[in-house]
Structure formats: C-alpha cells, structure tokens
Amino acid sequence: VQLQASGGGLVQPGGSLRVSCAVSGSISSVNAMGWYRQGPGKQRELVATITTGGATTYVGSVKGRFTISRDNAKNMVYLQMNSLKPEDTAVYYCAAGGPWGTRWGQGTLVTVSS
User: Fold this and answer.
1) Among 67, 65, 89, residue whose Cα is nearest residue 12
2) Which of 32, 39, 70, 73 is most exposed, with the fewest beta carbons within 10 Å of its own?
3) Which residues pair with 101 in a beta bridge?
4) Are the C-beta atoms of 77 and 86 separated by less than 8 Å?
C-alpha cells in the first residue's frame, strides 16, 4: 500500500482546509485509515480514523471541527478541518492499517497563522 498526502498550506485562524490522501496498491487489504499529526516540539498524535465500514473516531481536541471521510471509488481519504486554531499547526500524515501492520505516507504541512 502506498499513500500520498496533499492539500496542506497556510490558513488563518478560524479558516478551513481539506487535506487528501491517495491510496494505491493492495487497497483491499486495508482495514482502516487514519490521519496523524506532529506539531512543532510535540509527539505524533492520532487525529482521526475511519474503518472500511465508515465508523469514525476523533481525538477530543478536534471533535466537532474535523471530519474524516473516504471515497472508495476514488481510493481517497480526506480530512476536512474547520475552525482551525494555531495549535492545529502540524505536519499531517495519513496512515493505513492492515494485516501487514501500518503504512505511512509523507506528511503535508498545515500552518494556522494570521
């Protein structure tokens, strides 16, 4: 499985941004997808997950602001981020989980600043 993240950029506080992850390879073996982030001087944290059945989970700090979704026909996973805060600034990584473990894509930088 290969993952390619895109869509990061600079956004003002209160703004919105959507990051995308293109999935290729043995897609049928993927059980769940997730978005992680690593802010400056912080450890990588799990932000959101989505299963093949569409069940989602979120870390508390983004609940109500972020939405993870997937388009199985396009082999894409998205993270819609609304009401962004400076503390959301981080490199965002997509990840895929399966019987082979976890695969990571390269990160995409999201900067929230005025």
Assistant:
1) 89
2) 73
3) 98
4) no
pLDDT value, residue 72: 86
Which burial class, exposed, middle or buried, applies to 53 when counting CB atoms under 10 A from its CB (0-12, 13-18, 19+)? exposed
Q: Which amino acid is at 23?
A: V
Nearest to 48 by CA among 95, 7, 106: 95
The vertex-31 CA angle with 109 and 87, nearest 5°, equals 25
Amino acid in the structure at residue 90: A
33-49 confidence digits (pLDDT tens): 999 999 999 999 999 99
Q: What type of residue sits at position 35?
A: W
Is residue 32 within a helix (H) or strand (E), and if so which, with residue range? strand 32-38
The count of other CB atoms within 10 Å of the CB of residue 70 is: 20
